[in-house]
């Protein structure tokens, strides 16, 4: 005689077995409210659990919602996972997928926030049940922790708290990340070498070489933790806003660890259900999401999820949060060695107000400094809008963490609220993204700036149904500002840009990716395989060795397609469609038929990207090419305000090829110092002129921070002449040498205001 139980009993036995090993759990069976006839199967502190027969989980979904409301519980679980005996004892057991669902209260609403299912294969039942047991315990332990840290979870995300928690992540996991970096396959090495090369260009090779290899590796791993947290925070905030307060991403990170990050970030599923795909491009720090590496860092991702869950991100976030976190992660001595100094908020606010005053009223304000520069800026924005029926367009050409942009967007938001402007919030967000932009070469700065940008505007974004009708395209571009010179000038090849070789020819930009420099060993097998797939490898002579030949891959993209794009978002969608569906997808997004030469070039571009991705070599050059073309589109519209803090680096500190490129740009723009003074050429000089010439509208105001030495020294003479002749007018110069505005720095900054037109 065969003895078996009711199907749901096997599920209840699973629940009891799982909870028996959870330390300190207090289980209440058969929770009852007799006078209204309610009966939940189990209760644990602030959780109700409803057990259904295997494969019948859907039957309990509405029931558990009612229990949560009537028992006043924050969480509910409906589960249909049985013990193993169900499959051997019960006649004709259901072998469809089983699992559990976690539901959470959001005010008066209850919604599912997490679903975990398991496939049952004949002979593999025990493995599936064991996996379900682990996952279910993890959920229970997490929910109990959330109850214990209620005070923290409801705390304001202050810089002090966030700095402390990020530092905890770094201290706990830096060694693990470093081990994964040093023992992983070639992709991790490629990402690190790309980062090293970029650092040479951002700060100067001479500067970077003074920092020990051990310190650089430690810095890279710390920055990886920081950027991973930043990206997770960005998608969490947007998901919470679009999902009516719900955010499941931290929960998935905690419960699924590496499995979740591969799906969310490597495969780009983080915000796919809201029609958002372009928040972050691939960069050097994405090595931790690589499917071959992520499993080694599973605990790190789970801890990251727990950290994000413990903070109430619905609270107001300070304007300087990310800057404070970054400055606490990177040691002051390392930042000093790198010459990295973030602009004080008061200077950014002052420059915004004074530049707007000149733009709108034609002259600087009579007051030198005021206590409320952003409030003054609001009135000037209102005057400009009433006259031109658009927002003043601002770009920071070397934006760092986007201090200028953050304060300017803050002024726009204050104007929007104070003047009760009759523009839909989504449309206003779109107007901001079309009017406020930033450029930087440093990948950490770009990610920080994007999240900072998002923190200012995400509350304006709303959904129709369950997704955004139009995706947010955050206009922070990763590229070398001097590359805009290449897009405007024609002629012979220009050398070394963004660690690569770039040149323009007949309306096409060519990006040459040097393989050895990025740590890729080129051999006959690799060459033959790539060529067989249609990817050509070229040779070039290394400048530092007459006998050394290096290899590069050439990627081309026609600039003529820029003229056929309606806006930056369309361009991003079109590039995505190109990679996924081919040239036809690109044409569908752009809404026009391309010329055959354009189609052929785009098809070759697509093939190269796909092959490099398959070979594990596609790191960031796709991002650089797309950012370059997007920058050309955005900057063709020109800006009314070009504001920022330029980097100050003597070009002798750069790699030889790049130093030559900078000198060439300065010479062709007529700002190269004469004779011996040329040795003191600072990169801020050509950067200033490129920003003024190629970004500034007419009329417009360019106000940039530069080293005050170029006000007086011979090496700044040509620059001073350039900014003082038509169509430019020098409005005012601020020498801040005695003020020393940068913390713990004795450098000598100044501010130059130039009117164009």
Describe the 3D structure.
Mean pLDDT is 81; it is low at 30-40, 148-153 and 490-500. α9 runs parallel beside α19, α15 runs parallel beside α16 and α15 crosses α17. It contains 29 helices and 18 strands. The chain has four domains: 7-148, tt1808, chain A, CATH 3.90.1570; 159-334, no CATH class; 339-445 and 453-460 and 635-756, Rossmann fold (3-Layer(aba) Sandwich), CATH 3.40.50; 483-634, no CATH class. It has 757 residues and is of the alpha/beta class. The chain is globular, with a radius of gyration of 29 Å.
Would you kindly provide a brief summary of this structure?
Helices cover 48% and strands 16% of the residues. It is α/β, with parallel strands linked by helices.
Task: Provide the fold topology.
Elements: H1 7-20, E1 27-33, E2 38-44, E3 47-51, H2 61-70, E4 75-79, H3 85-89, E5 98-106, E6 109-118, H4 125-148, H5 150-153, H6 159-183, H7 186-203, H8 205-209, H9 213-242, H10 249-256, H11 258-266, H12 298-309, H13 321-329, H14 332-338, H15 345-361, H16 373-388, E7 394-396, H17 403-418, H18 425-435, E8 436-440, H19 443-457, E9 476-478, H20 483-488, E10 494-497, E11 500-505, E12 508-514, H21 524-532, E13 537-541, E14 549-558, H22 568-581, H23 583-590, H24 596-614, H25 621-636, E15 639-645, H26 656-668, H27 684-694, E16 696-707, H28 709-712, H29 717-722, E17 728-735, E18 749-756
Parallel strand pairs: 3-4, 7-8, 7-15, 8-9, 15-16
Antiparallel strand pairs: 1-2, 2-3, 4-5, 5-6, 10-11, 11-12, 12-14, 13-14, 16-18, 17-18
Helix pairs in contact: 1-4, 6-9, 6-12, 6-13, 9-19, 10-11, 10-12, 15-16, 15-17, 16-17, 17-19, 22-23, 22-25
